[in-house]
Amino acid sequence: MPAIHYDAPAWAERAEVNPGDILIADGDFTCIDAGTRLTVERDLHSPDLYVRCSEGKHYLDGQLDDQGRYVGLFPPEHAPC
What we know:
The protein starts with 11 loop residues before the first strand and ends in a 7-residue tail after the last strand. The chain is built from no helices and 8 strands. Strand 4 (41-42) and strand 5 (49-53) form a beta hairpin.
């Protein structure tokens, strides 16, 4: 599970993220540049959400913290950059 950064702006909430939404990445990804605008997508026959990255697909479940937030991914209105 990703480390929790309590001083970070509001990360995207799992309950509020849907395919087609735009998220902004912070600088803690090795496969996504900081500040990149990402479109959330869903696999055809799966509930799994992902964003495109330099390695293909970055699945969002790996970013979830224990409060249901996607660590390192912000809705545009809360992005730090």
